[in-house]
Amino acid sequence: MQKALQSRSPAITVVVAEANHLNCQLVASAFRPKRAGVSVVASAVASHQALTLFRERQPDVAIVSSELEDGPLEGYRVVRELRILQSKTRAIMLLGTREREPVIDAFRSGAHGVIFRDEAVGTLAKCIHAVNRGQVWASSEHLGYLLDVLGHGVPSRLRDARGMELLSRRETEVVRLVSEGLTNRGISKELGLSEHTIRNYLFRVFDKLGVSTRVELVLYCFQERQARAAGDRRDEPATKPGTNGI
Predict the structure, then answer these.
(1) Residue environment code for 71-101, b if the CB has 16+ CB neighbours within 10 A, otherwise e
(2) What is the DSSP letter of 193?
(3) Of 28, 124, 160, 214, which sits most exposed with the smallest number of CB within 10 A?
(4) Residue 161 class from Cβ within 10 Å (0-12 exposed, 13-18 middle, 19+ buried)?
(5) Splitting the chain (246 residues) into consecutive groups of 10 residues, what average pLDDT does each group show?
């Protein structure tokens, strides 16, 4: 009965952006016909083609290689542009290396998951389903990378599009401690509150920020920090005080 219900569920639509046509075909053939509830509806090898497809097709998930036909790092730019479009499409970054910086850059660009070329098709399918459900596909090692970068740099104030603060002072403290890698028990000791109270704070934070796990909360804070840093750079004067500029 469960299998029958799954077969009637609409397949997750996917657009693939890869470095060459052969790689696109390999991904598409792995999910033909609609294997594991996934349907590859289009593919592209250049950044402008990929962005056009994302706008026109509005797929559920985009699989974007870090390297595209028009450059070894163009995939990162495509994922950033996809985030700027505020599309419903959620991005998975396809990487050829497990080194720390490429993984951090993928999440910094706006990816909701990272997958590696040597991983099995079954793992890719699980990643697609998780990301489509709104989850973040990140291993504990990846999460550790983001925690290292965040450190004590969580935005002190998280605001909505109207500039209204989203969290109370206490909720912000809880988020800061989560981003430092503390468990609920560690946070309760730090703040002098019960673990039950900390769980309640986290549930409220999850609801306000639209996340459902600690991993997603860390990624949310990480990307908010990147966005704030980018905004600060845009607001900087063209010349620094003390130089010849006026």
Answers:
(1) eeebbbbbbbbbbeeebebbbbbbbeeeeee
(2) -
(3) 160
(4) exposed
(5) 54 96 94 86 96 95 96 94 88 94 90 94 94 90 81 57 75 87 90 93 89 83 72 50 33
Predicted pLDDT at 119: 94
pTM: 0.72
| Cβ proximity of 111 and 127 under 8 Å | no
Shared domain check, 161 and 127: no
Residue labelled with tokens 């459900």: 133
Q: Supply the pLDDT for residue 243.
A: 35
Is 131 in the same domain as 160?
no
Domain span including residue 132: 2-137
Domain shared by 74 and 133, yes or no: yes
- CB 129, CB 113: distance < 8 Å: no
Q: How distant is the alpha carbon of residue 33 from its chain centre?
A: 28
CATH number where 225 lies: 1.10.10.10
- pLDDT score of 76: 95
C-beta contacts of 20-29 below 8 A and 24+ residues apart? 20/45, 20/69, 21/45, 23/65, 27/63
- What pLDDT shows up at residue 176? 85
Mark which of 137, 161, 187 sits at the end of a domain: 137
Copy the structure tokens of residue 217.
Answer: 């909360």
Judge if 81 and 106 occupy the same domain: yes
Contact predicate 216/133, CB 8 Å: no
Q: Are residues 118 and 24 in the same domain?
A: yes
